[in-house]
Specification:
Elements (H helix, E strand, L loop, with lengths): L4 E4 L3 E2 L4 E3 L4 E4 L3 E2 L5 E3 L4 E4 L2 E6 L8 E4 L2 E4 L7 E2 L3 E4 L2 E4 L3 E3 L5 E4 L4 E3 L4 E3 L4 E5 L2 E2 L3 E5 L2 E2 L6 E2 L3 E6 L3 E4 L4 E4 L2 E6 L4 E5 L5 E4 L3 E4 L4 E5 L4 E4 L5 E4 L4 E2 L1 E4 L7 E3 L4 E8 H4 L3 E5 L4 E10 L6 E5 L6 E11 L1 E3 L3
Parallel strand pairs: 1-4, 2-5, 3-6, 4-7, 5-8, 7-9, 8-10, 9-12, 10-13, 11-14, 12-15, 13-16, 14-17, 15-18, 16-19, 17-20, 20-23, 21-24, 22-25, 23-26, 24-27, 25-28, 26-29, 27-30, 28-31, 29-32, 31-34, 32-35, 33-36, 34-36, 35-37, 36-38, 37-39, 38-40, 39-41
Length: 336
Amino acid sequence: FSSRNITVLNDVVVANTRVEMGGSIWTVGGNWNHRDVENGNAVDSTVILNGIDKRLIGSAVKGLFNLIIDGSIQLDSASDGGQGVENLLIINGTMTLQDLLILPVATSDLRVFETGRMTGPQDLVLMSGASISLMDGIIDNNQLIVSGDHNQNIIPARYDSQGVRFEGTGAAEITLANGTYEFSNDVFFSNGGVGTYVINNAAHPNFIFNGDVTFDESAGSIEWIKGNGQISFTDNFEQYASFGGKDIESLISSNTSAGGLIFSSSFTTAELRVMSADLASSATLYFAGHSTFTISTFTTLGSASYPIILKSTSSAQWYLKVTSSFTVENVHVSSS
């Protein structure tokens, strides 16, 4: 099929022993199935799927080169371990993940245009070097997993996946880009191997967390290189933040839930700011008992109508060390 433009209005099943697709462009209105190809070469080829409510049945190890989703396409659970895309994955329509979608190599790049949506109950995995260079649409699938090394190639945007995981595989480093990353649900930073996983914020990104945030060093260490950005908490439900004793960016809490913002481990920061009068609601913050929180500038401005409440997570005391300045009004403190 080398260097041919092929349009098919209905289904395509590719099941030969070996298939050479180099340079060809396939535009398909039906289902696409290449699961049973034994050997293939997809280099420089493009598959465009523009059907409505159609299926992609693929293979994690028999990757497509360029894949363009213009219709509504389901990555079917009948696929062989999911689907890999080795170059461009462009989402103009809707792609529903019923199986794993993998961007396996450094040339893999995801571009979600304004009309695009990636959804469904399975995971999207970016291996080392793979990128998201455009995110104007929606990603709200099960989990977005960013694994290994990345250098400012995950674009700042809003990510609505049910969970976002930044995973080291031992000695690895991710440098996040300048701009604002907003996460609708829980975010995990973890290291699954020997060596240190570095999260480098030297480009000064901002973070908005609408769910929990967890630093997990149960299997390997994490180094957090802080920038000059800010970390904001904005949910109206109970939120947990576990920073593992790291030196982190300035913190701003706009959480107004009765359950509050719960700091389940210690941290050091240049500033913690809570201004409940601006929120027209009381604000509650819990600090882990037996832990010390080192804050340079501590600003908690409540009002008589909307006080700020600072509590321990247990009956044990928590400890606040302010190293520069503090401004406190209408704050109720216990166990400190």
